[in-house]
């Protein structure tokens, strides 16, 4: 699928505010609301836009403790096995295969240190995990939800 500069602007505007109306977006990209809707529909059907979601402040729901955990795995653990295992843990907010010593990097979020420790122990109990190395987040410095800044 060909994505032009207007599509990129529309995507960036939706990432910044998924509730923006087609008319508001149209004003920013110099298109009518129906033209923006057609473009969004095309981007959705092509799988470029996979959905719309609410971004919840973790502090507002009491999950203020977070850590990044390097997983070291036995044998030839596959990305599919890692994905299936990490999806079983509600505290996992992200999981990635990585280069370097570790096999994967997991982002955990919990209510407090005790909750984080329990989540980490459950993650360590996965049959292929041989060891972990954790880093607790002290403060968030930069957080970006999307693919780039909105322009226009």
From TrEMBL:
PROSITE patterns attached to this UniProt entry: HTH_ASNC_2
GO molecular function: sequence-specific DNA binding
Residue ranges of domain HTH asnC-type in the record: 3-64
Keywords associated with the record: DNA-binding, Transcription, Transcription regulation
Identification of the protein by name: AsnC family transcriptional regulator
Keyword Flavoprotein carried by entry: no
GO biological process: response to amino acid
GO cellular component: cytosol
Biological classification of the source: Bacteria, Bacillati, Actinomycetota, Actinomycetes, Micromonosporales
Domain of life: Bacteria
